[in-house]
Predict the structure.
Amino acid sequence: MTDIIKDLATEKTVNGINIPKRPKIKQGAFQIYTGEGKGKSTASLGLMLRALGSGMHVYYVRMLKPRWKTGELKLCPENFHPNLTFRNVPHYWALCVSKTIPEDVETMTLKMKPEMEDLHEIVKSGKYDMIIADEINYCIFRGLLPLEKAIQIVEDRPKNVELVFTGRHAHPELVERADLVTEMKKIKHHFDKGIRARIGIEF
């Protein structure tokens, strides 16, 4: 395996990073990572790294983690990797509080409308080989994003583009359209013992 990785044809070197030649993707898939268990965003970040290491162009947008100074947000600033566009939707939604505040829901709903339009155009453009929308399922579940628009995005996906949706409560209509669905089932979680989120593990 090491020899195979070393033998990937290098197209260019940027800031000391060897960028493999962009592969020709014949058939992309629509993937969903959902469920109550931990690991949905983590899985999508792993996909992102694997794709970049293979020369693919990746667009990653985080929709509901604006105030968390997470490790991946610190690691992926602008120009972190020439083939990566890593975007964090700028807003002040608080995961455990805002869902009960009508003003926050209204503000977030208005904020998300242009974000979905942008995502739709990005998917249709074919500019990226992999597009990841982190927490989009939960946004739809909370009514922050319209299901109809998400379906339109899925249906307008070029066949060679890999599209990934993460977040709990994936809508059945999206699940039906997906090529791959993984449900993270919680068996045990240390949060239930009162252990708080830990830097480098949960964020």
In short: Confidence is low (pLDDT under 50) at residues 1-5.
